[in-house]
Specification:
Layout (H helix, E strand, L loop, with lengths): L37 E2 L10 H18 L1 E3 L2 H10 L2 E3 L2 E3 L2 H8 L5 E4 L8 E4 L2 E6 L5 E4 L3 E4 L2 H13 L21 H12 L11 H15 L3 H6 L4 E6 L4 E2 L1 H12 L3 E6 L2 E2 L7 H22 L5 E4 L3 E3 L6 E2 L3 H16 L4 E4 L9 H16 L4 E6 L1 E2 L4 E3 H17 L7 H4 L1 H7 L9 H4 L17 H6 L5 H15 L7 H16 L8
Helix pairs in contact: 1-9, 3-9, 4-5, 4-17, 5-6, 5-18, 6-8, 6-18, 8-9, 9-10, 10-11, 11-12, 12-17
C-alpha cells in the first residue's frame, strides 16, 4: 500500500464544492458532484398493505407484553418499573399503551449539527444522507491486501470521508485502529474526527466514560457551550440490541448519557433471519420492531423529545454456512418494510449500504446496488456504511469506498428534479436538427456539454477501442488510483486555534487519567 498518512503541512482550506472537486499539481481532479442536501422527491415504496403493517406492529407489541425484553442495567429497570413496566429479574414486559405513549414524543425531524455548519444534516422526513463504513476490524487495498485495522488506515479513511462531497457524516471508526490501546482509542479516534474532518460524527456506546468523552469532544469541536449543545444535537450513537430481546449494560448506559443530553440515539437491532431472529422475513421484522420500540421508548423515558432514529438491519444468513448475507432480496424487503414501520411511528429511519462480497468484484457491485435501491426507494434517512463496506462488514476497503462513492453520486443525481422548462423540453433543438440528423453539434447540446450527464468516478463509458487504447483498466484499478489521488489532494479543514488547543488539552488530560475501562 502507498503510505499517504503523513499529516498535511499545506495551508488548510474547506473542502471544495464544485462539480469536479479540487485538483493539485495540474492533475485531473476526481470527478465530484457538488455538496448536496438530498431529498427524496417521490413517495417511499410500500410492499405491505396497511393491514399487514398493523399485523407486524401488533405482533411486536405482543412480544413485548407477553415475552418481554431483558434490560441488564438495574438503573434502567428501576426507571421502567417506576413508569409502569412489569419487571421480573432482568426481564421487562411492557403494556402496549405504555409503548405507544412513550414513542409518540419522538421528533419526526431534527438537525444533526457539524463543526462546519455547511455540513449540518437534516434527519427525517424526505431527507437522506450517507455516511462512511464503520467498525470493520480489518482494512484492505489492492496493493497491500487484507490487514488488521490500524491507525494509519483509520486516518486515511477519515480523509476520504472529508474529501468526498457525497459523504455527509462519519458513521463511526471507518476501520478499528487496533494498534491504539482500547482504554484511550476513543480519545485519539474522536480527536481525529474533529481535526481531520468538519462533518458530524459518531461515538460508540461502550460504557459511560467513552460516551461522556464523546459528548465533550463534540462540544469542544463545535466551540459551543453545554447549553447550546443540548439545544443542538451534535453527536450520534448506535445502540445495538443483543438480539434476540436483550439490551445490555453498556448500550443502556449510552442511552442514559446521550438522551439525557439531547444527543442522537439510533436504536438498531441486529436481526439476521435464521440466526438471531425467526427464519421468515416477517418474523424477523416482528423481532426487529419489538426491540427497536423498546429501545426508543426507553430514550423517551430518559428525556421526552430526545432525538432518536429507528434502525433497521434485518437480513438473512446462508443456511448452509451460517454466514450473514447482505444485498439480498430478503434484505431489500426488510429495508422497505422497516421504512414503512418507521414512518408509521413518525421516527427517522436508519439503514445501510451493505454487501457480503469478499473482494471488489461483481458481487460487491450488485449487492450494493440492490442495498441502495432498497434504502432509496424504501425511505431511508441516515445511511450507515455508505462507502467502503466489504466482506459482510469485516473489512473496510479503499477501492470499495471509491466504487460506493460513485454509486452514491448516481443516487444523488437520480434524486435531482427533472427539468421540464420550455428550453429543456427541446422542441427548438428538434426543429434545428430535423428528421435524420444528430444532436452532437446542436446549439442545445453544446450549451449543456460540460454538465449534460453524470460524470462517473470509476464507471468506464468509452467504447471498446478507446478502452483498449487506455490499457484495459478494470474498475478496481481505476478505484485504486482514485483513492490515492484523493488522499494526495486532501487538505485538512480549518479549525480555530482555541478549539484545537482545548481539544488537545481535554484528550491529553483524559489519557493521563487512564482513559476508559476495558472490562464491561
Amino acid at each position: 500500500m502507498t503510505n499517504i498518512d503523513s499529516d498535511s503541512t499545506r495551508k488548510p482550506r474547506r473542502e471544495g464544492g464544485g462539480r469536479r472537486g479540487g485538483s493539485v499539481g495540474g492533475r485531473n481532479p476526481v470527478p465530484q458532484l457538488p455538496r448536496r442536501k438530498l431529498k427524496r422527491l417521490f413517495p417511499a415504496m410500500e410492499i405491505v398493505s396497511a393491514d399487514e403493517l398493523e399485523s407486524i406492529h401488533h405482533a411486536s407489541l405482543k412480544v413485548l407484553s407477553e415475552i418481554g425484553m431483558d434490560f441488564t442495567l438495574p438503573e434502567a429497570r428501576d426507571m421502567l418499573k417506576k413508569a409502569g413496566a412489569k419487571v421480573d429479574g432482568e426481564r421487562v414486559r411492557f403494556d402496549p399503551a405504555m409503548i405507544e405513549e412513550l414513542i409518540s414524543s419522538v421528533p419526526s425531524e431534527f438537525t444533526f449539527h457539524a463543526r462546519n455548519p455547511d455540513n449540518n444534516q437534516r434527519i427525517g422526513g424526505n431527507n437522506i444522507t450517507f455516511g462512511t463504513v464503520a467498525s470493520p476490524p480489518n482494512a484492505s487495498d489492492m496493493d497491500g491486501g487484507r490487514r488488521t485495522g490500524n491507525y494509519q488506515d483509520y486516518k486515511n479513511f477519515l480523509r476520504l470521508g472529508q474529501y468526498f462531497n457525497c459523504i455527509g457524516f462519519l458513521s463511526g471508526y471507518p476501520v478499528e485502529p487496533i494498534d491504539i490501546h482500547a482504554s484511550i482509542r476513543h480519545l485519539e479516534a474522536l480527536r481525529d474526527m474533529v481535526r481531520l474532518t468538519d462533518k458530524p460524527f459518531h461515538a460508540y456506546s461502550l460504557g459511560r466514560e467513552r460516551i461522556r468523552d464523546g459528548i465533550e469532544i463534540a462540544r469542544i469541536g463545535r466551540g459551543i457551550s453545554q447549553e447550546q449543545l443540548e439545544r443542538e444535537p451534535s453527536l450520534f450513537t448506535i445502540i445495538n440490541t443483543n438480539s434476540p430481546l436483550k439490551l445490555d449494560t453498556p448500550m443502556l448506559q449510552g442511552i442514559l448519557e446521550m438522551s439525557s443530553r439531547n444527543q442522537i440515539v439510533c436504536v438498531t437491532p441486529f436481526t439476521l433471519a435464521g440466526a438471531m431472529a425467526p427464519v421468515t422475513v416477517a418474523g424477523a421484522l416482528v423481532e426487529q420492531n419489538a426491540e427497536a420500540l423498546a429501545g426508543i421508548a426507553f430514550t423517551q423515558l430518559v428525556r421526552k423529545g430526545a432525538p432518536v432514529i429507528y434502525g433497521g438491519f434485518t437480513s438473512n444468513v446462508d443456511m448452509k454456512s451460517g454466514a450473514p448475507a447482505f444485498g439480498t432480496p430478503e434484505y431489500m424487503k426488510a429495508t422497505v418494510v422497516g421504512g414503512q414501520l418507521a414512518r408509521r411511528y413518525k421516527v427517522p429511519f436508519r439503514t445501510s449500504n451493505t454487501c457480503a462480497a469478499n473482494t471488489v468484484d461483481a458481487q460487491a457491485a450488485y449487492e450494493s446496488v440492490f442495498s441502495l435501491w432498497g434504502l432509496t426507494m424504501g425511505g431511508g434517512n441516515l445511511i450507515m456504511h455508505g462507502a467502503g463496506w466489504l466482506e459482510g462488514g469485516l473489512v473496510a476497503s479503499f477501492e470499495k469506498f471509491i466504487l460506493d462513492c460513485d454509486l452514491i453520486q448516481m443516487v444523488s443525481e437520480f434524486m435531482q428534479p427533472l427539468e421540464t422548462t420550455e428550453d429543456a423540453l427541446g422542441v427548438e433543438a428538434i426543429r434545428e436538427v430535423g428528421p435524420g440528423g444528430h444532436f452532437f453539434g446542436a446549439q442545445h447540446t453544446l450549451a449543456r456539454y460540460t454538465n449534460a450527464f453524470y460524470s462517473p468516478i470509476v464507471s468506464d463509458w468509452r467504447n471498446n477501442q478507446q478502452w483498449l487504447a487506455a490499457g484495459k483498466p478494470e474498475a478496481w484499478q481505476k478505484a485504486n488510483a482514485v483513492w490515492k489521488q484523493a488522499l494526495a489532494d486532501y487538505q485538512e479543514p480549518p479549525i480555530d486555534a482555541a478549539v484545537r488547543d482545548e481539544l488537545n488539552a481535554f484528550v491529553e488530560k483524559r489519557k493521563a487519567e487512564g482513559g476508559a475501562p476495558t472490562d464491561f
